[in-house]
C-alpha cells in the first residue's frame, strides 16, 4: 500500500509541512503553532492577518479562488397553498366562489351595489337629519368628550 507521512498544516498559510521542515511555536496560552517557513513565522510575529496576504489559503478562501467543485443548487420544495375557512365563509362556500365564473360574481356585485344605492335614496327622503357633505361623519378624537345633541 501507500506510505502515510504525518504532515502538519502551517498556522499562517495552511500549506502542508513535511517532517524536517518548518518550526513549532508554542503560544503563551499553550497552543502549539506550526509554521512552514521563516516567512510565515515572521509575518505571524508581526501580527499580520493571513486573510490579507494574497498567497495564503485564507485569502484564497475569502476571495473565492480555486473553488473547482461547483455546488449543486438545492431544489427547495414549494409551499403548498392550503385553503382554510374564513370567519364569514365556510370552506365549501369559498370553493364554490373560486369555481364561479367572474361574470356571475360581477353581476352579483352590481346587484348588491344597486340595492345599497336604492336603500340610500329611500333613506334620504325619510330621515330628517341633514346629510353631511360628501357622506362624511364628523370625526371626534377619542379623548374628547362627545356632546349629545
Characterise this structure:
The protein is an alpha+beta fold and 149 residues long. Among the domains are: 8-63, Roll (Ribosomal Protein L24e, Chain: T), CATH 2.30.170.20; 91-120. Helices cover 32% and strands 8% of the residues. The protein is built from four helices and four strands; from the N terminus they run ββββαααα. The chain has helices at 38-45, 57-62, 91-99, 102-126, and strands at 8-9, 16-17, 23-26, 32-35. The strands form two sheets. The protein has a two-stranded antiparallel sheet. The chain has a two-stranded antiparallel sheet with strand order 3-4. The chain is elongated, with a radius of gyration of 40 Å. The model has no long low-confidence stretch (mean pLDDT 84).
List the helices and strands and how they pair.
Layout: E1 8-9, E2 16-17, E3 23-26, E4 32-35, H1 38-45, H2 57-62, H3 91-99, H4 102-126
Antiparallel strand pairs: 1-2, 3-4
Estimated share of beta-strand residues: 5-15%
Under the CATH scheme, the architecture of the domain at 8-63 is Roll
Main sheet, how many strands, which sense, barrel? 2 strands, antiparallel
Highest-level CATH class of the domain at 8-63? Mainly Beta
- Outline the low-pLDDT stretches: none
Q: What's the number of helices?
A: 4
Task: Give the CATH superfamily of the domain at 8-63.
Answer: Ribosomal protein L24
Based on CA inertia axes, which overall geometry fits? Answer: elongated
Q: How much helical structure, as a percent, in the residues?
A: 25-40%
Structural class: alpha+beta
Report the oligomer.
Answer: single chain
Strand order across the largest sheet: 1-2
Domain Large ribosomal subunit protein eL24-related N-terminal: 7-68
GO biological process, one term: cytoplasmic translation
Family: Belongs to the eukaryotic ribosomal protein eL24 family.
InterPro entries: L24e/L24_sf, Ribosomal_eL24, Ribosomal_eL24-rel_N
Amino acid at each position: 500500500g501507500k506510505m502515510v507521512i504525518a504532515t502538519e498544516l502551517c498556522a499562517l498559510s495552511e500549506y502542508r509541512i513535511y517532517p524536517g521542515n518548518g518550526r513549532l511555536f508554542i503560544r503563551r496560552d499553550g497552543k502549539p503553532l506550526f509554521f512552514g517557513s521563516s516567512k510565515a513565522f515572521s509575518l505571524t510575529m508581526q501580527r499580520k492577518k493571513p486573510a490579507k496576504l494574497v498567497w495564503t489559503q485564507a485569502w484564497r478562501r475569502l476571495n473565492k479562488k480555486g473553488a473547482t467543485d461547483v455546488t449543486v443548487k438545492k431544489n427547495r420544495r414549494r409551499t403548498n397553498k392550503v385553503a382554510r375557512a374564513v370567519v364569514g365563509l365556510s370552506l365549501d362556500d369559498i370553493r364554490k366562489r373560486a369555481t364561479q365564473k367572474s361574470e356571475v360574481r360581477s353581476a352579483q356585485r352590481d346587484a348588491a351595489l344597486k340595492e345599497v344605492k336604492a336603500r340610500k335614496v329611500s333613506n334620504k327622503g325619510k330621515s330628517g337629519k341633514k346629510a353631511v357633505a360628501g357622506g362624511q361623519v364628523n370625526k371626534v378624537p377619542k379623548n374628547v368628550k362627545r356632546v349629545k345633541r
